[in-house]
Amino acid sequence: MNNVLVKNIILFVVLVLLQVGVLNQVQLGGFINPYIYILFIILLPVGTPGWLTLVLSFVLGISIDMFCNSPGIHTSATVFAGFVRPYLLSSLMPRETVEPTDTPNIRLFGTGWFLKYCLVMVIVHHVSLFMVEAFKFSSLHLILWRALLSIVFTMILIVLSQFLFTRNNK
Amino acid sequence: MKNLILFILRNHYVLLFILLESVSFVMVVRYNSYQHTSFINSSAAVAGQVNSVFSTVNNYLSLNQRNQELNDELARLRTMMPESSKIDTLAAQTAFDSVYTQQYEYLPCRVISNSVKSANNFLTLDIGSKHGVEPGMAVVSAMGAVGVVKAVSPNFSSVISLLNQNLKISAMLEKSGYFGSLGWEGGDYRIANLEDLPGHIKVSNGDVVITSGYSTIFPKGVMIGNVESVTAHGVNGFMSASVRLSVDFKRLSNVQVVRNLLKKEQLELQERAENE
């Protein structure tokens, strides 16, 4: 349990630093911005209580917002993603026998399952993020286009990180 | 209370989500200038729509009052129009000359009502006693004699037109100097009748008729018209002629009131002579 806590704190710090220190500086093609920090919510242990997920989402989002100087935008998107997560997990859970401390990683649950789970989470997060950022529906196609490109890049980064991290952790 | 706590506990997840999401949105709207402006703008747009509907209804309900207000305003503005006021300053010209003593002063004015149709026609001028007009003054236009002031009010004066059967003025033939009495007998507003001419004189058509200046009203030599035809050789030794008036009374606009500065002196002298 302690191990899980420390691991997640480190992951949290690393992801936030990676996000604000590297990815926010690199805006591909002007407006494509991968948001890798959502990986923290994705990788929370399966048995994390719902309220804790929400609180952690809130803390994560507000941390990013503090660095991005955009109070509330990342917070709202991340909280929404955190809210969706338990329902998503319970509907997608492949096996009955899952330890509460298990993180939904690619080795344990399989590539296909993980990609599906990640994709839904990233879509939920990114679309709500770009919606809040634009704050209007009039340029919906532009929002969705931006969201789509960012989703693709975030997914690529997540999959890459999965291979890197899980190998190292092993 | 217990039920409420139970409800909160049972739905703590959703409620917590709503709480956190609300906090985020409050932050979004409050601290991000773009979203703030956008939020304000869209709420203003919605509020504006609602307000305009309400104000349309309101306007309709208060139409009576609005009309009344507009009417009052219209009346106020009309009163302020230049057409509503009279010019009180008159350019009455007085010449100062040591050789001639000025006898006549002309007050420019406008005809504001006129008629030629009735048997006794009157004019109304836009100046009155305030401007120095008195009953008995002559009224002339650039084309010739017009009439005599009959009554005055502070701002207006009523003028007996030449086209009035009660007015006779002293007229003379310019060429020969014989004088008669000119009056109008109704009918054609362009023709007046010159009576009491001596029967022996020769009057030809086209002879110029002017004022004689024998009365204290008209100055001498104001154009009246031309002899149109000799109408009657009276049995009593007088004859009369019809005179085509030089003034077109149908389009009379700018006239002058003639003030005889020496009228009082002349009348006093004549009165004294008659009394003696």
The CATH homologous superfamily of the largest domain in chain B corresponds to Rod shape-determining protein MreC, domain 1
Radius of gyration based on Cα positions of chain B: 41 Å
Average pLDDT number of chain A: 81
Please give the oligomerization state of what you see. Answer: heterodimer
CATH architecture group name of the largest domain in chain B:
Beta Barrel
Helix content of chain B: 25-40%
Q: How would you describe the shape of chain A?
A: globular
Task: Give the terminus-to-terminus CA distance of chain B.
Answer: 127 Å
Write down the CATH class of the largest domain in chain B.
Answer: Mainly Beta
CATH third-tier fold name of the largest domain in chain B? Thrombin, subunit H
Protein described:
The complex is a heterodimer of chains A (170) and B (276). With 170 residues, chain A is an all-alpha fold. Chain A is 72% helix and 0% strand. The radius of gyration of chain A is 15 Å and the shape is globular. Chain B has 276 residues and is of the alpha+beta class. Chain B has 2 domains: 2-79, no CATH class; 104-275, Rod shape-determining protein MreC, domain 1 (Thrombin, subunit H, Beta Barrel), CATH 2.40.10.340. Chain B has helices spanning 2-10, 12-31, 33-61, 63-80, 263-275; strands at 104-113, 120-125, 138-141, 144-152, 157-164, 169-173, 179-183, 191-198, 208-211, 223-233, 238-245, 254-260. In chain B, the strands form 2 sheets. Chain B has a 6-stranded antiparallel beta barrel. Chain B has a 6-stranded antiparallel β-barrel with strand order 6-7-8-11-10-9. In chain B, helix 2 (12-31) packs across helix 3. The longest helix of chain B has 29 residues, at 33-61. The radius of gyration of chain B is 41 Å and the shape is rod-shaped. The model of chain B has no long low-confidence stretch (mean pLDDT 81). The A-B interface holds A 50-51, 54-55, 57-58, 61, 65, 70-73, 75-76, 79-80, 82-83, 86, 132, 135-136 and B 12-13, 16-17, 20-21, 23-32, 34-35, 38-39, 42.
